[in-house]
Amino acid sequence: MASSVDLGNQLESFVGQLVKTGRYNSRSEILREGVRLIHEREIRLAALDASIARGIADADSGRVIDIDAAAAMLDARYAGMTEPQ
């Protein structure tokens, strides 16, 4: 399916430079990579949204740890991981 896009002057110039310098072979290649990157970002954002929803559900259900207890657990877990200065 053919597409027509209006990138505006600034982005159009940037795309032209990328093709001119040989970084990409064509406008289509650049646009495909751009859409692929957006797709990957949307997948990561959906995973983040799901994690946040799980965390909120845990908090709403009372499945929480006191901040002092959590800090103590983290301190114990990571004790000795840093090199002495």
Please tell me about this protein's structure.
By secondary structure, the chain is mainly α. It has one domain (8-78). Helices cover 69% and strands 0% of the residues. It has 3 helices and no strands. The chain has helices at residues 8-20, 27-60, 67-78. The longest helix is centred in the middle third of the chain and has 34 residues, at 27-60. The radius of gyration is 23 Å and the shape is elongated. It starts with 7 loop residues before the first helix and ends in a 7-residue tail after the last helix.
Percentage of residues in DSSP E strands: under 5%
Helix segment tally? 3
Mean pLDDT figure: 93
Q: Which descriptor suits the 3D outline?
A: elongated
Q: How many strands in all? A: 0
Count the domains. Answer: 1
Low confidence ranges: none
The helix content, as a percent range, equals 55-70%
Oligomer: single chain
Distance between the termini: 60 Å
> Given the helix and strand composition, which structural class is it?
mainly alpha
Taken in chain order, the helices and strands follow as: HHH
Radius of gyration: 23 Å
How is the main sheet built? none
